């Protein structure tokens, strides 16, 4: 028996929350971004999220964000979808970034809840509606209250799902019940935003994942979904468990995913470069733990 999705994934199944490569001097490394994007797509990702949390969007300029989208689109063509992070704490600025992403070649935008000001739910809803009304690009909501301080409550999300331009949600709520309510009552495509939830959410009807860990093991993340779709659910579970030490090392060790992903990519000789301040690079002990977890997930010949 194969896995049948309740909705057609608008941006693909396996999306990588791609790091933004920098040169050693801290400048945007567009050549590195092109090479990394090609590797991820060749490795099994059918979508790339650019300028997101893992892409260090708080420390890249509007011009750098647009340049990154254009460079990646040039490198990978139409093979993957490109979902551009445009969320800010300012509705007007978010709309400006949405227009820029559309001109640069993005297929959709990922819009995080406005942060720091902690708007009430009616203001959160109005923010997303204004962004969705501002362009022809489909919108993916980004629910990550641990970073923003504000949840997109399930009832708010259910109301927003009626907007024709709002098609998906990246779920980092850690609320399985709330997510299942949204899945049951809307046509929103739900993407697991926390790698430890990839298979669990997919099993109850999610569209796929937006994975930070896919920066280093794109083929393995893809294989979990492929196995589940083929009805090989026990094998899918084994693959998910096999990746768990790496997921924990990258995502639950007290450091942002941008730091751990870039540390591993650099150690593997892949484009990444340093993180921008205030983030700091992983220390040697952390890197050794990351490499050990990587070798467990990807047994060496």
Your description of this structure?
- Catalyzes the condensation of (S)-aspartate-beta-semialdehyde [(S)-ASA] and pyruvate to 4-hydroxy-tetrahydrodipicolinate (HTPA).
- It is an enzyme of class 4 (lyase).
- Its EC number is 4.3.3.7.
- The protein is of the alpha/beta class and 301 residues long.
- The protein has one domain (14-231): Alpha-Beta Barrel (TIM Barrel), CATH 3.20.20.
- The chain contains twelve helices and eight strands.
- The chain has helices at 30-42, 62-76, 91-104, 121-133, 145-148, 154-160, 176-185, 198-203, 218-229, 233-251, 257-267, 284-297, and strands at residues 14-17, 47-50, 81-85, 108-112, 139-143, 166-171, 189-192, 208-211.
- The chain has an eight-stranded parallel beta barrel, surrounded by five helices.
- Strand 6, helix 7 (176-185) and strand 7 (189-192) form a beta-alpha-beta unit.
- The longest helix is centred in the C-terminal third of the chain and has 19 residues, at 233-251.
- It is globular.
């Amino acid at each position: 028996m194969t896995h049948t999705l309740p909705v057609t994934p608008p941006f693909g199944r396996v999306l990588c929350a791609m790091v933004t490569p920098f040169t050693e001097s801290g400048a945007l490394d567009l050549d590195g971004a092109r090479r990394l994007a090609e590797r991820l797509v060749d490795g099994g990702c059918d979508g790339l999220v650019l300028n997101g949390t893992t892409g260090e969007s708080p420390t890249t300029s509007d011009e750098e964000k647009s340049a990154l989208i254009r460079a990646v689109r040039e490198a990978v063509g139409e093979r993957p979808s490109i979902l551009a992070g445009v969320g800010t704490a300012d509705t007007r600025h978010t709309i400006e970034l949405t227009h820029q992403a559309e001109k640069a070649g993005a297929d959709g935008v990922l819009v995080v809840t406005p942060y720091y000001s902690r708007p009430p739910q009616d203001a959160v809803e109005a923010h997303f509606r204004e962004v969705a009304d501002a362009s022809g690009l489909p919108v993916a909501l980004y629910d990550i209250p641990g970073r923003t301080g504000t949840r997109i409550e399930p009832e708010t999300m259910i109301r927003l799902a009626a907007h024709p331009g709002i098609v998906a949600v990246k779920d980092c709520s850690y609320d399985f019940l709330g997510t299942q309510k949204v899945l049951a009552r809307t046509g929103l495509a739900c993407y697991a935003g926390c790698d430890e939830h990839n298979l669990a959410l997919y099993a109850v009807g999610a569209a796929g994942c937006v994975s930070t860990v896919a920066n280093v093991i794109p083929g393995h993340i893809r294989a979990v979904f492929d196995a589940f779709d083929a009805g090989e659910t026990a094998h899918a579970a084994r693959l998910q468990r096999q990746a768990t030490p790496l997921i924990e090392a990258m995502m639950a060790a007290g450091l942002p995913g941008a730091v751990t992903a870039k540390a591993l990519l650099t150690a593997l000789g892949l484009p990444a470069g340093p993180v921008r301040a205030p983030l700091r690079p992983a220390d040697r002990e952390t890197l050794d733990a990351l490499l050990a977890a990587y070798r467990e997930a990807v047994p060496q010949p």
